[in-house]
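Why Heme-binding protein 1? Reviewers of the renewal asked for a concrete example.
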Amino acid sequence: MFGMIKNSLFGNTEETEYKLLSSETKDGVSFEVRRYDAAKFAVVSSEGRSFDQVTGELVRKLLMYIGGSNEQGEAMGTAAPIIITVYPRNDGVLSRRLVVGIRVPSIYQQSPPTPTDSAIRVEERPGMTVYALQFGGFAGESEYRAEALRLTRTLGETAPFQRKQYFCCSYDPPLKPYGRRNEVWFLQDEP
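Here is what the prediction returned.
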């Protein structure tokens, strides 16, 4: 636990790099289109509990892993954002299934440390193009849902993005009181 706290407060935070394809404003709402390369992520899943009930617990598991709770005892620094994959129902309410992931820092991409927590797995995620909408404040399920609805309305019905899932992203440690950065990402359909 101490390793996780030390790592998140004093470790280096590596922000996931991307290529900015465009920056757009429609109806007063600004968003970006970005391309992310394939990378290895540490992920943990949950089914049966709501977003707000379980995200803190799952994020802590991942922070423990990158903070040194792995077979090699390696504190890797921190990475941002933490990406929560959610699966909305047709009415917009989130299902009780989610996947929380954090990109393994660059110097560990070739050979990530082995998790000691059996709930955590390391997986290769393919490159992706996303529509990204940024917002501030502390974000829980209701804030992410509201921003996802705003991005959906901004992009319109014909925009080529996946509607069965989206990503809720947080860039800041939980104790940061102001200047917080959150984003909603919609995965663009590949041609």
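Residues 1-10 have pLDDT under 50 and may be disordered. This is the kind of structural detail the renewal will allow us to pursue systematically.
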